[in-house]
């Protein structure tokens, strides 16, 4: 480095991508043209070196691999799962894929990159794609009533005539919930049983009013695909989705398809279960590999292999809000076309939308996450009952780090709130609430300045009465919402028409 009486060059070092860059600051005097040229060359060379270090980090995906291995082995060693498979796609290429644990303990066969797992509700994204393919063909309109395509579909509640195809995918149809057929033999006719059950059923709410998780809507969508296309649902997927995208290891559930599968072992006894059969294919009855799931999700990314028209890709990626969601605070789930969510504030603040779809069966768990504009996809399937997103979120954040993208900071657990008096106008929200098949009573304790959620035991088909059993969670009121420091939860009340709801 050059220095003269009239010119002084200060240098500062900073760690950038594993390399030290030297920032040259203008001195008090003047540098000659030759000296300036030398400085500029040095800075340019160092910037090139730093860029190279980022490229090297991205090429190795070191953080991604470490995060995946740590997350998966935490699942396996904690007894929540016995085996797993993960995959990462960047720019349309599988850049990392790995299997963990034994697919079959007796033979010692390990999980590999083509080992199949049941993917549960991640299957919903395939029927969403199938319906949009039929829309591209001009055979289905999303805002037409379902009865146009399935005339024999009827319910005791006459509002069923107002259910549209679109409502099946943002969970706003109002259908009762889940008509699942789990087992170990492919027996029964799920469509026939579903239609028979619906004839005596009522809706939970007005069609389109609110999104409440509903498997039945996707079974109805599966029936529409078959009726309109004239093919079996799985045959339609094989021809229009799996084959074009090169998904060689995706099909119906493990107990139906077999092949290179990962068996489920009871975490307590080590007992091997028979291969699981799930006959409602669209709602949760497909199997796949982590690599195939990446290939599928990449079709929604710019530059990915397209099977849908551009307008249908935009449809599957755009928000599908309900009137109820407009009054909710924070991120809204089930506000998308099949996805669990299509936006998280922490990522959207950095200009990125994360799409996610999880899946769980009696024996398997799956997570799929994609950032379309960056063409990044991560997928994981586990033999075990847990939340697959716990693995894929760790993988996605590490992948973003490897790519030099801003990673949201971990949310810190809030300090215990100072209890405030519960406002009198909230008294109307006390009462009995339902969530799926369970009931709870919400009760305000003015002396303790707390709100208690109490479990109630069902009484046959009747809504339970009385104060019920133990307190499940206690919340304190502060700042317009209720919080539980112990459970790290926050919630608030909102009305859906005349129906009160507690959101947490």
General description of the model:
The chain is of the alpha+beta class. The chain folds into 3 domains: about 10-60; about 60-400, DD-peptidase/beta-lactamase superfamily (Beta-lactamase, 3-Layer(aba) Sandwich), CATH 3.40.710; about 425-504. The protein contains 12 helices and 20 strands. A hairpin with a 3-residue loop joins β11 (about 355-360) and β12. α2 packs antiparallel against α12 (about 390-400), α3 (about 125-135) runs parallel beside α5 (about 215-230) and α3 (about 125-135) crosses α6. The N and C termini lie far apart (about 60 Å). The model is unreliable at about 1-30 and about 45-55 (pLDDT under 50).
SSE class: alpha+beta
Helix content: 25-40%
Integer average pLDDT: 86
Q: How many beta-strand elements? A: 20
- Label the overall shape: globular
According to CATH, the fold-level topology of the largest domain is Beta-lactamase
Largest sheet, strands/sense/barrel: 7 strands, antiparallel
Task: List its salient traits.
504 residues, alpha+beta, seven-stranded antiparallel beta sheet, 23% strand, disordered N terminus
Entry summary:
With about 500 residues, the protein is an alpha+beta fold. The protein has twelve helices and 20 strands.
Strand and helix map with partners:
Elements (H helix, E strand, L loop, with lengths): L9 E7 L2 E7 L7 H28 L1 H16 L5 E8 L2 E12 L4 E2 L6 E2 L5 H13 L45 E2 L6 H9 L17 H14 L3 H13 L5 E2 L1 H4 L19 E2 L2 H4 L1 E3 L1 H9 L11 H8 L27 H4 L6 E6 L3 E8 L4 E8 L5 H14 L28 E5 L2 E8 L4 E7 L14 E8 L2 E4 L4 E8 L2 E5 L1
Antiparallel strand pairs: 1-2, 3-4, 3-13, 4-5, 6-10, 7-9, 8-10, 11-12, 12-13, 14-15, 15-16, 16-17, 17-18, 18-19, 19-20
């Amino acid at each position: 480095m050059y220095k003269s009486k009239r010119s002084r060059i200060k240098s500062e070092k900073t760690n950038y991508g594993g390399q030290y860059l030297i920032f040259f600051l203008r001195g008090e005097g003047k540098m000659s043209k030759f000296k300036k040229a030398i400085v500029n060359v040095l800075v340019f060379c160092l910037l090139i070196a730093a860029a190279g270090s980022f490229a090297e980090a991205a090429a190795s995906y070191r953080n991604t691999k470490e995060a995946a291995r740590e997350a998966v082995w935490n699942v396996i060693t904690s007894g929540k799962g016995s085996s797993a498979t993960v995959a990462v796609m960047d720019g349309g290429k599988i850049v990392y894929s790995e299997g963990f644990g034994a697919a079959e303990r007796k033979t010692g066969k390990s999980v590999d990159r083509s080992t199949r797992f049941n993917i549960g509700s991640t299957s919903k994204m395939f029927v969403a794609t199938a319906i949009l393919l039929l829309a591209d063909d001009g055979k289905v309109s999303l805002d037409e009533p379902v009865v146009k395509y399935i005339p024999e579909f009827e319910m005791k509640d006459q509002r069923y005539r107002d259910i549209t195809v679109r409502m099946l995918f943002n969970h706003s149809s109002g259908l009762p919930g889940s008509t699942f057929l789990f087992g170990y033999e492919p027996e029964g006719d799920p469509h026939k049983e579903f239609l028979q059950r619906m004839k005596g059923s009522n809706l939970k709410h007005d069609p389109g009013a609110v999104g409440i998780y509903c498997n039945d809507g996707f079974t109805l969508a599966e029936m529409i695909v078959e009726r309109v296309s004239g093919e079996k649902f799985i045959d339609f997927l094989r021809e229009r989705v799996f084959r074009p995208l090169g998904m060689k290891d995706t099909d119906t559930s493990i107990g139906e398809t077999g092949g290179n599968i990962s068996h489920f072992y009871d975490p307590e006894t080590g007992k091997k279960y028979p291969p699981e059969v799930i006959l409602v294919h669209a709602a949760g009855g497909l199997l796949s590999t982590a690599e195939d799931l990446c290939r599928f999700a990449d079709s929604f990314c710019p530059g990915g292999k397209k099977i849908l028209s551009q307008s249908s890709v935009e449809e599957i990626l755009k928000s599908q809000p309900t009137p109820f969601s407009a009054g909710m605070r924070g991120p809204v789930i089930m506000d998308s076309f099949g996805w669990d969510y299509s936006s998280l504030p922490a990522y959207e603040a950095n200009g990125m939308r994360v799409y996610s779809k999880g899946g769980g069966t009696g024996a398997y768990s799956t997570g799929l996450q994609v950032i379309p504009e960056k063409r990044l996809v991560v997928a994981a399937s586990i033999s075990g009952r847990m939340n697959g997103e716990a693995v894929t979120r760790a993988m996605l954040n590490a992948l973003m780090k490897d790519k030099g993208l801003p990673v949201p900071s971990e949310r810190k657990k809030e300090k215990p709130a100072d209890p405030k008096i519960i406002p009198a106008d909230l008294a109307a929200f006390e009462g009995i609430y339902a969530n799926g098949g369970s009931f709870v009573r919400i009760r305000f304790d003015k002396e303790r300045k707390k709100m208690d959620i109490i479990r109630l035991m069902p009484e046959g088909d009747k809504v339970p009465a009385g104060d019920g059993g133990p307190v499940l969670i206690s919340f304190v009121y502060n700042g317009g919402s209720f919080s539980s420091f112990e459970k790290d939860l926050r919630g608030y009340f909102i009305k859906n028409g005349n129906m009160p709801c507690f959101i947490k």
